Amino acid sequence: MSSRTLTAEVLSIGDELVHAGLIDTNSSYISQQLGALGVAVQRFTVVGDDPDDLQEAIDGACRRVDVVIASGGLGPTLDDRTREVVAQVLQEPLRFDEDSWQQVLAWFTRHGRTAPDSNRRQAELPQSATSLSNSVGTAPGFRALVHSAELFVLPGVPREMKVLFADHVLPAVRRLGSLRPTAQACLRVLGPSEALLGERLGKFMLAGANPAVGITASGGLLSVRLVGTADSEAAAAALCEQTAAELRPVLGEWLFAEGLKEVPEIVLERLAGQQRTIAFAESCTGGLCAARLTDLSGSSKVLQGGVIAYSNAAKVELLGVPESLLEAHGAVSEQVAAAMAAGARERFSADCAIATTGIAGPAGGSDEKPVGTVCFALATANSSGSTDSRAWTVRIPDLGRRFVRDRAVHEVWRSLLL
Amino acid sequence: MSSRTLTAEVLSIGDELVHAGLIDTNSSYISQQLGALGVAVQRFTVVGDDPDDLQEAIDGACRRVDVVIASGGLGPTLDDRTREVVAQVLQEPLRFDEDSWQQVLAWFTRHGRTAPDSNRRQAELPQSATSLSNSVGTAPGFRALVHSAELFVLPGVPREMKVLFADHVLPAVRRLGSLRPTAQACLRVLGPSEALLGERLGKFMLAGANPAVGITASGGLLSVRLVGTADSEAAAAALCEQTAAELRPVLGEWLFAEGLKEVPEIVLERLAGQQRTIAFAESCTGGLCAARLTDLSGSSKVLQGGVIAYSNAAKVELLGVPESLLEAHGAVSEQVAAAMAAGARERFSADCAIATTGIAGPAGGSDEKPVGTVCFALATANSSGSTDSRAWTVRIPDLGRRFVRDRAVHEVWRSLLL
Fold first, then answer.
1. How far, in Å, are A8, B103, B319, B403 from residue A157 at the CA level?
2. Is the ipTM of this complex over 0.90?
3. Domains and CATH numbers, chain A
């Protein structure tokens, strides 16, 4: 097995994923982690708790690939059946694992609670399986050899899955194969449509290219992702950088950020590195800019605060926008955006402030200002210590309220990074 | 086929889903839509653009079930290969569909642009396939009989997928089977752990129960979902209501909302129905409450605005919290929460206001106020027209920054619904 690429499939288990609208994020996380090790993930399968469906899915995956990472169905309730079904696939009985039970009891003790009897189910394992300890929750995982595949079964709760993945799966997968190193890069782009960008980058995106180049689109943000493979991580990184250097002039002013981190994290690090503080004055984005930044630990050093000024009265009262400006130009105007940003910068005593005011839709559009019209302003200190505001307008395609708001937030990040 | 339950699988296609961290939301949407028709979705598969992997996934799904809904890989770029691969599975050539091409050209004309030549790929179809028109984007879908399954192939962009699903798939699936009607219900619960709730509801959750009862957990919010099946939609709804009536006394004060809508939507409708306006004063939730409410069209009638008061200075300057309160009790205190809510209500001239102040972590906890301590206040008008504030504290389990923030937002919604 050590001389070739390991293949893998990812399996997410639970009726709530198949029938009740809960979105599977585990597969994507697991695949990215395995991909960074050079393991070729070929497929995700999401299946409910029905024993027959689940048995066929586990059996099929374990016949196709070298490594199968499953998550979900390890809870204490009767609709959690992964343990039994894996035992069936293995044609083995379940055994009660005393060590696992002691771990479950210890978790409850640490949290000042008593373990309900139903949690005893969580200490059962297929006969030949090995328990995987869970330091952050009650459900131990397990590992077993099924057909010719190494099957890892992890809890479905993303936070717990990630801890068990790091503690148990990563080291084991590293041992399973002598894996060919990979490196990744990502260029963030705002401006063109996905098709136009794809046409411009066509010659980089041919099947088999190394690094492989792909484009993903989310809320108007286009991400150009590179994955290089070579004999060393440094050589793979060099391949990525070589192609990135060819891409930069093609992307031109569309390119506004680079790196594998999410864009709000890049913004936060940039501002923290410059020891600059920021405030937001949000109308059409309604708190999204602040919410995405405050999702990140450490944001309190950079973010002074924000005002969500949905009504005109709020723009006047809380941000000091002159009523005359609102009357003369309307709430969605560069003049009002500039006054909102200046007001936020002064009231929060921040180094800079960003304002958004626009028409997110579906209602509120006009011929002159159709849905998707968003005005922005960035207020900064000028050399005499008072406030300079720079305002601009973007006509965002009306692809729905969420798209317009998301795209407006990306525009805010871009203005802070350029 | 008309006398039994139709079975279905959902297939999402694209390297960006398998390798690049983009999350598949299409499968969940499609499954819920099919589930409401009584079609039993057995599995989702997510597969990349590699022709061999894709061919095996399409072939396998079309051998297992009656209906396969695939999305993705219909774009204009060279890494979009779904059309070719379906033709291979069918052992057919591709044909150029002039009608589809005219639709692509018309879309570009409507948007004041010229179609790049690469878009011609989007008008190619397997020989025996039927084109499915796309009124909101450039990629037409198609439909073909593969083995014994009806295969529908839709664009991957969620907005376009949803339109083609409604226009083409729903009517066709209704014709394919005489489907047994279902009804759904959902009870929202805050308080117990998932295991404790599962134990209390164990007797309702046995395999084969009608309605089927399942529990899902997200950010501390537990959702008890019921799916009933009967000879008429009304009878299925009556089954759900009968079980819901048994569940309510078991859930007691944990239960705070009912219905299939998302909780922020229920909150918005409640406030709109009461003609009440609201404002937010957010510290630890950092704009999340406002962002989730403003995601909804019509929120401007209810939401006056909000202040994100991350720093103490912002609490004093923008919300009028007395400095003496901050010094005496600290920023995370019921006293400060009450003053923040009262300040927001008055400054935004809102009927009510909610404040949050707490320790989201990972830093900032102490023995007295550990990470997860969140103080809330609800300010309303009293009979004399001035402000009454009610404050309370919740110790949220420290399951990470996002969990604490999400759970705090759910607590806000609960306080507005009870």
1. 21, 44, 38, 12
2. no
3. 7-176 (3.40.980.10), 182-258 (3.30.70), 263-417 (3.90.950.20)
